[in-house]
Amino acid sequence: MRKPLIVGNWKMYKTITEAEDYVAQIKDRLPAKQVAEVELAVPTLFLQSLARLTAASPLKIVAENCFYQDEGAFTGETSPLALRELGIKHVILGHSERRRLFFESDQVVNQKVHAALSAGLCPILCVDETMKRLAEHGQVAWVVNQVITGLAGVSEDQLAHIVIAYEPSWAIGTGKAAASPVEANEGCYLIRQTVACLYGEAAANRVRILYGGSVNQANLPQLIGRPDIDGVLIGRASLDPATFLTMVDQVVAASGGEASA
Question: What burial class does residue 228 get, using C-beta atoms within 10 Å of its C-beta: 0-12 exposed, 13-18 middle, 19+ buried?
Answer without folding.
Answer: buried
